[in-house]
Amino acid sequence: MNNFDYDLIVIGAGSGGTRTARIAAGYGAKTAVVEGDRPGGTCVLRGCVPKKLLIYGSEFSHQVEDAIGYEWETGSIKPKWKDLILKKNKELDRLNSIYNNLIINSGCDLINGWGKLLSDHEVLVKNKSSKERKISAKKIMIAVGGKSSFPDFDGNLNMINSDEALDLNELPNSILIYGSGYIAVEFAGIFNGFGVETNLVFRSDYVLKGFDIDIRKKLTEQMVNRGIKIFPEVTIEKIESNDQFITSLSDSTKIFTDKVMGATGRVPNIELLGVKEIGINVGKKGNIIVNKFNQTNIKSVYAIGDVTDRINLTPVAIAEGHAFSDREFGDLKRFISYDNVPSAVFSQPPVSVVGLTIEDANALNINAKEFVSEFNPLKNSISGKQEKSLMKLVVDENDKVLGAHMLGEYAPEIIQGIAVSIKAGAKKSDFDATIGIHPTAAEEFVTMK
User: Fold this and answer.
1) How far is CA 266 from the centre of its chain?
2) Residues carrying an active site annotation
3) Residue 420 and residue 119: Cα distance in Å, rounded?
4) What is the pLDDT of residues 103-119, one digit of tens each?
5) pTM score
């Protein structure tokens, strides 16, 4: 160990990498964190946090519509996009400062530059001035996350990605978003809420492939009702640039917009990392393959988070990093569970899920049934809005709850609590025996028959 500069080098100062480094340093490990950009990572600086702030901002247009239904007199309103972006960036600067302090105050060395693996124990760090230094460690943790990926077609580079969409200087009058996953759906809600003519183009039949089919259908319908133009079961053949962008679809439709955004997926960010050069095994998507210890085929090199392409959620990366440092430096035999991990899509209205869908259960040959509640929330009874919430429980033949699914206001907050009960092995009879809080949407989960 005395032959190395550090006990641990963490490449990437996102949420997962920062947690890994802090816990390791807390156990006394000499730790370095290598980051070419600002500490904070995708979620804090280019994903979850700024996106959620813009979602909050975009929701006010619909809340004004509700206010009118509740007999509020309203005048003319319009968004001040540039001012909002400035406020959003100020908040990101604050969070970046917090991450800097978390790393440094925990006793880690924060090294600015892009890390590249040279061998089992060596990392080359190159900063923006092209200055290079070589550092070594007994163990190396890769926590570099993912990056956006565009399909290959003529004019695909005319698209902006989600990073650029978060920092537009001006709101476009119109936009086309290519994709149907959570990034595409969330940004469609953002732009639509800010009054942008929004077009959503995707290959599948409904948005959010892989989610419960009824929730997919209902959300697609509600997005249309909110004014988003949906173009399902098509692909983009080419994008031409003139005064506007002209997007040609596979069904010969042409759409004219001020901006085109690509949101068809993300890939592990390993292109410049040197993993293949030193012989680390990667999957078909470029994901780093790891075992239950988050260890690659090279024993001294580990990986967590989106770069492994397992469950691409920030809390999972944080949990993986914490457990890794507990095991490797704290002498604790601790692992995380990948079962029943809750997740949310901050669409408008939002979707949140935990556990299996009925389709999942059938694929696993589990004898299960659904309990379903669909209703127009009380709030809508006066506002006049017709936007039903949909809630489901999936229950096996032994009465155990295997999954919970919700489309509707406050879905992520409600499902977080239900995830605890499913994780604890709750039965449908436990839900039935629980008194509901009235009047709420959440009470529907304990009154389903």
Assistant:
1) 10
2) 438
3) 42
4) 999 999 999 999 999 99
5) 0.96
